[in-house]
Amino acid sequence: LWRFGYSARLLKTNHFRTAASNTSFPAVWMLLAQYSGRIPGLFVVVKKNRFFTMPETVEDKANLELYSPHPEVRGMTLLNREAFKRTVVVPVLKVKKEIVNTLLKSLKHTVLQRPGLKRVVEDPEDEDSRFVILDPHKIPEFSLGESEQQVLKQLNIHPEVSKYNLELTYENFKSEEILRAVLPEGQDVTSGFSRVGHIAHLNLRDHQLPYRHLIGQVIIDKNPGITCVVNKTNIIDSTYRNFQMEVLAGESNLVTKVKENNIVYELDFSKVYWNPRLSTEHSRIVELLKPGDVLFDVFAGIGPFAIPAAKKKCQVFANDLNPESYNWLLHNCQLNKVDNKIKAFNMDGRDFLLGPVREELSKELPLLKEQKTSFHIVMNLPALAIEFLDVFRHLLVGEPCSTTGLPMVHCYAFSKHDDPAKDIQERAEASLGTSLDGRCSTYLVRNVAPNKEMLCISFQLPADVLYKRPCPDEAKPASKRLCTSRDLSEEKVPS
Question: pTM for the whole thing?
Fold first, then answer.
C-alpha cells in the first residue's frame, strides 16, 4: 500500500486495523473496496489480486447526498462554477465492448440515465472492455437484483459489480440542484420562469433577492437560447399593464420575438404586457369566432386576440391605451400582413366602447335580418375590466332587430373568493344592473397566485341593458322623452 502512495489515515483507523489483522490478505481488497470512496485516487474492482488507480481526486463524502453539489457552495452569491466539482462512487459492470449496446437495451432501467453523464467509460486496463455505469439508486449496496443477474447470465457477463469514482462538475447538475445547494437550507428554490423569446422572466421572493444575479446566470447556463434574465420589481401598472424589472444576468436587450399559435409577435418586454401563459386562452376565444364575425378588443395589447382573429378573416377593432402597445400592435399587424383587416385605436377603454364600438354596433345591428354575423367584445384587463361593464347600460338607442344578434362579451377578472365563479358573476351583475342567472358561463383561465384565480365570464348582452328604448308619455304625447324598459315595467296604469 505504501508503495502505491496511499494515505495511511484510513489504515490507522481502529476499525480497519482490527478487521485487517483478522483477515487474509486477499480479503483486505474487499475491505478496500468498501472504503474506496474515501481513499484519494483509488478505483477498486472487487476481484482477487487486481486493482488500479484513477487520476480523479475523491473527496470524503460520508454525509453528501448523491448528485448534490459540494456543501461548500451554500451561501454563494457570485457564481463560481469550479466550486461545484465533487466525486461520487457509482456501481459499474465490466463488459466486452461489442456487447455494450445489447446490455444497455437489456438493462435500460438500471443503467445510469442522468443527462450530461456518460453511461459507458473506457477500462484503463483493457482496451477491449468497457465499464457500464449503473444507477446507484437502483443498485443498493452495489448488489444486483435477481432480474439483473438473470440478464447478465443470458449475455454471459460476469455479475460482478465494481466501484467507480465519477467526477461531477457544474455542467452535470440541474438548475434546481444548484440553487437548492446555494440557497439557505429549507428555503424555496426558484428554477421556473416565463420565457419570452430570449428573455427569462422571474418573480423572485424577498429571501431569494441576495442570490438573484447567481440565479439569473444559472438559468442562462442551463437553458439554451436564454440570453437575458429579468426579475419583476413591482406589481403590474393597471394603466399600461407593464411593470418595472431588473436585468439579473446576460444582455440588456429587452426587444424580443415570440411565436404563439403559429403567429409571430415582436415587442419590447419592458414597455408592454405579454404573458406566455395565456396562449391557450387566446386560442380558446379565437376558436369561438368564425370568418366574417366582428371582434372588438378593448384592451388589445400587442394583438394576441386581434391578429389571429384577423387571420381567420374576421373584422377586428383593436384598442389599447398604452402608446407602446399601440405602436407594437401596428407593427405586428404589418408583420403578419393583417394591417388591412384591423382598425387600431389608442384610446381609453371606456372611450373606445362609447365611440368606435357604439358607432359600429349602431350601424351594423339594425342590418342583421338573419343571424350571419356574430359580434364579440373581449375585455382582457382582469384587474379592472368588470368596472367597465357599466358602459353597456343603454349604449344604444332603439329596439334590437334580433336578440340572437346581440354581442357576446368575454370579460376577465381576478378573484380571491372561495367561490370565484359566483364572485365574478355577482360583480358583473352589479356593473350591468341586471341578473345573469342562466345567461352566462365562467371559465377558469389560470391560478395566478395562492388563493387568486383568473377567470373569464362570457355572456350575451341583454337587450334591456344594451338598448335605451323610446316610450310614449301619456302626459305629453308629443314628447320624445326616452325611457328604459325598467321605466316601462314600473309605469302605473291609469285606473
Answer: 0.73
Among 7, 28, 5, 9, which residue's Cα sits nearest to residue 18? 28
What are the cell numbers at 476?
A: 305629453
For residue range 77-106, list pLDDT tens digits in order: 999 999 999 888 889 988 898 888 988 888
Q: Which three cell numbers stand for residue 432?
A: 350591468
CA distance 214 to 249: 8
Residue 403 belongs to a domain: yes
The helices-and-strands tally (H runs, E runs) of the chain is: 14, 21
Please give the backbone phi and psi of residue 416, each rounded to the nearest 5 degrees, phi first: -110, 10
Q: Which stretches of 375-446 are DSSP H helices?
A: 420-432
194 and 144 together in one domain: no
Per the structure, the count of domains in the chain is 3
Give the integer Cα–Cα distance in Å for 376 and 180. Answer: 48
Q: Are residues 402 and 433 in the same domain?
A: yes
Rounded mean pLDDT of the chain?
82
* CATH number (domain holding residue 279): 3.40.50.150
Tell me 14's DSSP state.
H
Closest CA to 465 of 442, 439, 491: 439
Task: Name the helix (H) or strand (E) containing 176.
Answer: helix 175-182
Domain span at residue 121 reads 86-168
Residue at 421 is within a domain = yes
Task: Give the domain CATH number at 216.
Answer: 3.30.300.110
- 308 and 454 both lie in a single domain: yes
Q: Is residue 405 in a domain?
A: yes
pLDDT-above-90 percentage for the chain: 53
Q: How confident is the model at residue 476 (pLDDT cuts 50, 70, 90)?
A: very low
User: Which position has the grid cell 358573476?
Assistant: 425
